[in-house]
Amino acid sequence: MSNSNSSDAPHKSPVKKRRFLTAEKKFQIYLEAQDVSKPVGEILRREGLYSTDLARIRLHVKEGALQRLSAKPGCKQGQVSTDAYQAIKHELQEKERALADLSVELAILRKKTNGVSWDR
């Protein structure tokens, strides 16, 4: 006999899709939340966020501002992804190997052109 609670018909609970907010949207929410004339709870409900989400946005804004303000004038801090770093590192190693090979070839050619032979 089959029971209605059996595993034959799994119950699917509604899975909440994760929202992706752009940096612009997060900053807009941050600015709205800073406005004392607007209730924060209303903004959070409208955007479907929790107070912890707003706290995280505020923290990111602070970190970004401190990082940008601590940069020296005229110097732009660039960040490279891990993949790009690994690719550049690998390329450098290949070039170093090629340079070492060419150095050995140059040394051999110099010996041959100066009258020194390996046969002697």
Layout of helices and strands, plus pairs?
Layout: H1 23-34, H2 40-47, H3 51-70, H4 82-113
Short note summarizing the structure:
The protein has 120 residues and is mainly α.
Descriptive keywords:
120 residues; mainly alpha; 4 helices; 60% helix; elongated
Total helix count? 4
Low-pLDDT ranges: none
Q: Which structural class best describes the helix and strand composition?
A: mainly alpha
Considering DSSP H and I runs of 4 or more, what fraction of the residues is helical?
55-70%
Q: How far apart are the first and last residues' alpha carbons, in Å?
A: 96 Å
Outline the biggest β-sheet: none
Please describe what this structure looks like.
- With 120 residues, this protein is an all-alpha fold.
- The protein is built from four helices and no strands.
- The model has no long low-confidence stretch (mean pLDDT 84).
- It folds into two domains: 53 residues; 35 residues.
